[in-house]
Design a protein that fits this description.
4-stranded antiparallel β-sheet; 5-stranded antiparallel β-sheet; alpha+beta; 35% strand; 167 residues; rod-shaped
Length: 167
């Protein structure tokens, strides 16, 4: 192999290795977003609230694939459920208002939702064939049966927490 080919191959492998190493770190983060609410000051006679949050980036996991069950012609979970994990971003809302403790003094109400880890499972499906497994009493022939269809429900799990403070 020529040295230029080896160098090109080495550079390609280095690029692929760095991309694979950086992908999980980039996928686990959320994209920060600050909402511009300053235009509310022209409509409302008060200072605009500040809102900062983020957009979560879901990371797919390994699907819970089909499983063979004895006595069935089709496997269970023909359409597998796919799990997703994501960390929801921290959301903060700051609203300027008059202090409830001192009359005429400026105050600030802050509400913050911490960043919980969430888990989501997509819906799935399981189907049953309109024929039974081969029956020995019917000389190995299947018997017609009613077809079955089942939808596997999606699931969302997380533990959100929030704080509210008046200053």
């Amino acid at each position: 192999m020529k040295s230029t080919t080896r160098a090109s191959l080495t550079a390609l492998m280095a690029c692929m290795a760095s991309a694979v190493a950086a992908a999980p770190a980039a996928a686990a983060a959320s994209v920060p977003v600050t909402l511009p609410l300053e235009s509310l000051e022209t409509v409302l006679p008060l200072e605009a609230p500040g809102l900062s949050t983020g957009v979560p980036v879901p990371v797919p996991g390994a699907p819970d694939g089909p499983r063979h069950v004895t006595g069935r012609m089709l496997p269970q979970r023909v359409l597998p459920q796919v799990p997703f994990t994501s960390g929801l971003p921290r959301t903060a809302l700051e609203v300027p208002l008059e202090s409830p403790l001192v009359e005429g003094a400026p105050g600030l109400a802050r509400a913050a939702v911490e960043a919980p880890d969430t888990r989501l499972t997509t819906p799935g499906a399981s189907l049953g064939a309109p024929l039974s497994a081969p029956r020995p009493e019917l000389f190995g022939q299947p018997e017609p049966v009613l077809p079955e269809a089942a939808l596997l429900t999606p699931a969302l799990a997380g533990t959100p927490a929030a704080d509210l403070a008046l200053h």
